[in-house]
Amino acid sequence: MDNFKHFSLMYLNDWYWWDKPFSERISSSDKDDSLDAFHSAAKYYKVTRNFEDDGNEKRLQAALDLVLSVGGPLTEDNVCQQVSALADAFERRYGKNAVSAASKFLWLRHRSPVVIFDSRAVAWLRANNYKVPHGSGYHEYRRQWLAAYADNEERIRVACSGLPSVKDYTMASEWTSDEVAAIAGSRWFQERVFDKYLWFNAASR
Asked: Cα–Cα distance between 162 and 125 in angstroms, integer?
């Protein structure tokens, strides 16, 4: 499916119902609520298998502590190092180099310039002649992802610009048109619309 309007509407609902609450609650000063949100996000993003419980702590507490230890701001100059360092920290603690989980949690905390690493996105990139070599790290994946995004950016921007006019048909109906326009016009939002496009089209191949 090549209709970015569909994916922009899909992500507005997802942002309202899933990612916005995850982002706010994981960073909460209420430690129990933060951990509960982290659990929910791990399940939603299907990364709980990376963090085996050894019975010595609350489930996922060490993973959450590692995520919260990554301070901001994340920039173009340091984002790849930060994602890779968190993945390495996960490996030291849990025995698995969970770069996908690292990118997802850091996106929830910092959004752009983090690009979420996902196997479906890798499959789509390779199928569409964006070179992501087997065994390559997060840096090369992100570089190719951004190249593909740039090739579709204008169509994504136009699709997102129409969201304020259809907000009443979404979960975000209570937001004002200006609020929806500000969110939909953000780089991070439009990048996540592209994620939705990649995941759907890779799965349908």
From this structure: 27
